Amino acid sequence: MQATQTPVLKDIVLVGAGHSHVGVLRMFGMNPMPGVRFTLITRQVHTPYSGMLPGMIAGIYDYDAAHIDTAPLSRFAQARLYHSEVIGLDLAGKRVICRDRPPVPYDILSINIGSTPSARQIPGAAEHAIPVKPIDGFIERFEAARTRVLKAQGRARIGVVGGGAGGVELLLSLHRRLTRDVAAAGFDPSGLFFTLITSSDELLPTFPPRMRQRFAQLLRERGISVVAGGKASEVRADAVLVEGNGPIALDEVFWTTRAAPAGWLAQTGLALDDEGFIRVNETLQSVSHPEVFAAGDVAAIEGHAPPKSGVYAVRSGPPLAGNLRRILNGHRLAAYKPQREALYLITTGEPYALGARNGFTFEGAWVWKLKDRIDRRFMAKFNELPEMAEHDQAPVPAIADQAAVKEISAMAMRCGGCGAKVGATILTRALGTVEPAARDDVVVGLDAPDDAAIVDTGANRLSVHTVDYFRAIVDDPYVFGKIAANHALGDIYAMGAEPQTALAIATVPYGIEAKVEADLAQMMAGANQILREAKCALVGGHTSEGAELSLGFAVNGLVDRDAALRKGGLRPGDALIVTKPVGTGALLAAHMRGKARARWVMQAIEHMTLSNRAAARILQAHGASASTDVTGFGLLGHLVEMVKAGGVDATLWLPRVPLLDGLMETMAAGIFSSLQPQNVRLRRAIRNLEAAASHALYPVLFDPQTAGGLLASVPSERAQACVKALRAGGYTTAAIIGIVEPRSASLEAITVELERTECRPAPALSAPIETRDQMLEEMPRAHQPVL
Ligand SMILES: Cc1cc2nc3c(=O)[nH]c(=O)nc-3n(C[C@H](O)[C@H](O)[C@H](O)COP(=O)(O)OP(=O)(O)OC[C@H]3O[C@@H](n4cnc5c(N)ncnc54)[C@H](O)[C@@H]3O)c2cc1C
User: Fold this and answer.
1) What topology is assigned to 575-783 in CATH?
2) Each residue of 427-481: pLDDT tens digit?
3) Which atom of ligand 1 is nearest to the CA of 169?
4) Backbone angles phi, psi at 555, to 5 degrees
5) 347 alpha carbon to ligand 1 midpoint, in Å?
6) Which atom of ligand 1 is nearest to the CA of 256?
7) 115 CA distance to ligand 1 centroid (A)?
8) Which CATH homologous superfamily contains domain 423-560?
9) What is the CATH superfamily name and number for domain 10-115+261-339?
10) What is the mean pLDDT of residues 244-252?
11) Distance between CA 310 and CA 403 in Å, rounded?
């Protein structure tokens, strides 16, 4: 997807989007190294910034303010983003083992995966305590606890185990947030009790005495109990047992004690210290495997023992980046000596903080403001990245006139996937001149084009043929393989057929053999996984070298003689159902420019890899009379094809069209797929164009989809049950989005309804049609577009 003409010579794989790696990515984005490719593997694509986590829990910062978004950052660094969990290493084969994808090869590996609290040996902690680390996932765990507290109407005993800076700050943040939320929900916050349990005799044992006293005072003032001097030895469902103290009754227990490493490191063969952290020397290189680096909490630097904190993980970023560059250049690596003293700024749950440096302490609202400024400046480095330069863009020919220059510039930003499709108008014009040989056994061919061609081979079932091919739309070849295969199968399912065989056609960028092989293997592994699930045999293919990674399939399927679902089978009165949300075109265009949030991209990928197979069956089981898969021509374009083929009109209920998260933000920012302008030409099919065009949702009608859902017509009396079954089958946003009308005298076949108030029976129906609002009742609120 990130086309570059420099062949890849070395692969640097970064495991974990920790505080050091985000710095490395930014530095290489600012100053790339030709021939070096980064791959970031992370199990969470929005990585929490530890400095702002307490503020987020206290309710001062929102999610995006406190998280680094790895999607734009990876685009900026021209790094591939793999959303996966690493579960092991094959050090001899130089491969990273992931939970849900093929191993990822590397030349240089760097690990920055943080740590977890060392509660493994404490009986009951795994079942009943809420671990603060790993920090990814903590927000979800906290939210679950908050919901329980509100459900208990604010009568809850909250405990934090661990009296270090993390524990104290967390408890104060919890105190502020829960007290406010309980009061806001109309309950009495005096039902909340907070306790801090620490094995040391005092809080914050490594901090100056003045700081300790101030925090002890603050806790007292807020009515928070402290149980000091005894180790928490067991966690039960309703209590924590503390040595020398007996049980402390608690409903929610947060665990923040000393950090421990991830368990899987012990099986890797890397040299580890006594606690299981990766032993690295001052160059941050593993002492046993010089091609492996580690930084942040997971690293144990020989001769140093910096605290396991975000501050030190951040500081390791620049020396790590420097040494990665040096090792690739064959230069001597530089030593990194973590500084002994750091500036500590600890918040109090309120916009008020205390600081300590070199034994001195200070406090005030100004300290909080200082910390807030430092933290926001740090986050801005990642969330406000410099505009990306166009890499390796071909020069515009001198003979190009103004119109040609405009078109060429647009070409540079052309989307992949279905955004790379040739527009419907161009296609119709070009194919209008083609006269295929006439054959009696062609049941569906170019004369009445459908999702796939149908050929009568004389067998019991008809043979269905389709082909799709496009260039990579995501940087991860494994995921791209899945999407490409799923997309190709879409036409088969739209015809109501079952896939039988597939031939692949692939283009891989020029490069050194091992890299080409690895990319091809990843891509085909993804594709084959989808094909296998579809019981579609990959029977052959063709591969060539080219400028960009591309993949396509010619798929054959089978369908019973009278069971083929054609585009044109719509009947007046039928409900129109769409099975997946739309928005992949604009979102992928935004991703290409580093403007899409990672969670939007991951949600779009989830939908693009969701098979239409079960949807097709459900639609058929509910009497579907016509269907098509929504792809390059967008929702309106495909609906136009259907109504044209069926000789009917349709009303489309625009506010009911399910949308992918982030689509409206992306479109509001003026980002669309490069195919959008061509799709917009089909607006002439809209009867109430003037009104529709002024509606905020109007552009979504033209957004081209990759591996989109099915658009089908279903008898209206069965439509609700059909949507219910679709949602239960995993198509969580499936929705009734309109109704088929009898052909009118109007030239324009489609009316776009912009409001959702009017209820009107459909004409020409034997059974009474449900009112539109009845039909729509079950639309999931989360996916209803906001007007
Ligand atoms: C509530 C709270 C408040 C804190 N406050 C502060 C503070 O104010 N100041 C401070 O300095 N420290 C603070 N800390 C400590 C700090 O969060 C950690 O020390 C710091 O996050 C460690 O940074 P890291 O870069 O080593 O790893 P992390 O920040 O933990 O990042 C690890 C990354 O690796 C990914 N990952 C982990 N395992 C895998 C895997 N198997 N496969 C793929 N990806 C993986 C994760 O998704 C994540 O992206 C706080 C911690 C908590 C929980």
Assistant:
1) Phosphoribosyl-aminoimidazole Synthetase; Chain A, domain 2 (3.90.650)
2) 667 777 777 888 888 888 877 677 788 998 888 899 999 999 988 999 999 999 9
3) 3
4) -115, 135
5) 18
6) 53
7) 7
8) PurM-like, N-terminal domain (3.30.1330.10)
9) FAD/NAD(P)-binding domain (3.50.50.60)
10) 92
11) 52
